[in-house]
Amino acid sequence: MEWSIHQVVESTGITSRTLRYYDQIGLLVPSRTGAGGLRYYDQARLIRLQRILLLREFGMPLADIADVLAGEADDIDALRDHRRRLLVEKHRIDTQVHSVEATIAALEKGRPIMPKHMFEGFDHRKYDAEVRERWGDEAADRSNTWWNGLGAEGQRAFRQQLEELNTAWDQVIAAGVAPDSEQAQAIAAQHVKWLGASIRPDELSKGKVKGIVQMYVDDERFAANYNRVSPAGPQFVRDAVHHWADQHLDD
Fold first, then answer.
1. Cα–Cα distance, 15 to 10 (Å, whole number)
2. What range(s) does the HTH merR-type domain occupy (predicted)?
3. Would 244 be classed as within a structural domain?
């Protein structure tokens, strides 16, 4: 049995452009190409695609994935290895759930929170695969190097800066000022400076900054940071930063 590229896209959620790129680099070649260049994938290809996507979830570059798959002779053994990796990830998520539950319990009972335990299981690299997909392997590797180089204290300080920024955004959103107001633009400047901590100065372009803050609107995970006062909060932050970028950054 075979599935067309359109069926694979619908089933997996990845784009046809990604599948064509995987074909181009030899990572996932279709089982055949039909009339009009339509690609088809058989069961073996779908199993290979599942393995590719699993390894991408773990932040592995495509070149390394190709090497790993080339060294795997048996599908069942390979899938067992992926299952082991997933169980490790499940343990990490379970640890996160436990840390959040402990924080809730401490707050409900009026006990002091324990920062050492609040962040157990949390890992900056959890978005690594997504960063690689969106910005490329080089940017992801630099980001990981930068984050690890901060150390525990630096990472806590970075998170604290984010929370302070979010609180400042909440205040100006609640005040009802415009995104291009003096108050909002002052916070936008701080926000771009915060973003710039993990981006090389020569890459802090108008387009990159605008692309990042657009995700605050498009992705509910990021939107949750800015809709605490108003559902329109993410759009406000985006518009404010866009305005600041137009005034101060090069293309």
1. 9
2. 1-71
3. yes
Q: Crossing angle for the helix pair 5-12 and 16-24, nearest 10 degrees? A: 120
Strands (E), 131-227: none
- Summarize pLDDT for 102-154 with one digit per residue, the tens: 777 777 777 765 554 545 555 555 556 566 666 677 777 777 788 778 887 88
Helix (DSSP H) and strand (DSSP E) numbers for the chain: 12, 3
Has this prediction a pTM greater than 0.70?
no
Q: What is the rounded end-to-end Cα distance, in angstroms, of the chain?
A: 49
Token pair of 204, please? Answer: 């802090």
Residue 114, domain member (yes or no): no
| Beta pairing partners, 90 | none
CA 14 vs. chain centroid, Å, equals 15
Name the domain count of the chain.
Answer: 2
Distance CA 64, CA 59 (A): 10
